[in-house]
Amino acid sequence: MTSEVIRNPNTDHLLTPENSALLIIDYQPVQVSSIRSMPRKELVFNIASLAKAAVNYGLPIIHSTVNVESGRNKPPIQELQDILGLLPIYDRTTVNAWEDVEFKEAVKALGRRKLVMTALWTEVCLAFPALDALLEGYEVYVPVDAVGGTSVAAHEAGLRRVEQAGGKLISRVQFYCELQRDWAREATIPGFMDVFESADGFNPEKAAAAEVA
User: Fold this and answer.
1) What pTM was estimated for this model as a whole?
2) Domain spanning 20-212: which superfamily?
3) What is the spatial distance between Cα 80 and Cα 97, in angstroms, rounded to a whole number?
4) Where are the domains positioned within the chain?
5) Considering the chain, what is the average pLDDT of its residues?
């Protein structure tokens, strides 16, 4: 069993740690509490796991909030602060993060065309910057199980709009495996396994199986 020589990670058509970046937008208490498209505990677990995976594989992360400095909103949920606490946060007043100068400049400064984009809500703070980024020639990948909308219909409509514009829908596990690619790359395996269970033992796969049973 011999693995192929590693493809050029900068030009690979699949996501790699060298050609992609993770954008995390507006995972704040008010937004999380308003999600109706999936269980909120599962959503928080999924976005925190996605952030941990990005850290494990060394992806650059752009983290943004809305209206914290104005006092109208609260800082990011603690689960993300625990993982991303040392990173700068781009706080905005704009609904569309792509219309915030500092946020967009930070993304462009990375020099990466593949953007893994997450936000609350799917139909607004994800859809708007995703559509703008696509229009400017970026590739946008949306982990559908790490974003949420104000209803199932709103979430699905937001995803459909992004997909119709050329965005690519993925899952969080697909994201992890696409970055790992080969189990012979042992340095990142412990971090890979770490994303599947939270500190309090919550595991969405086990929870789903229990509901079916």
Assistant:
1) 0.92
2) Isochorismatase-like (3.40.50.850)
3) 18
4) 20-212
5) 94
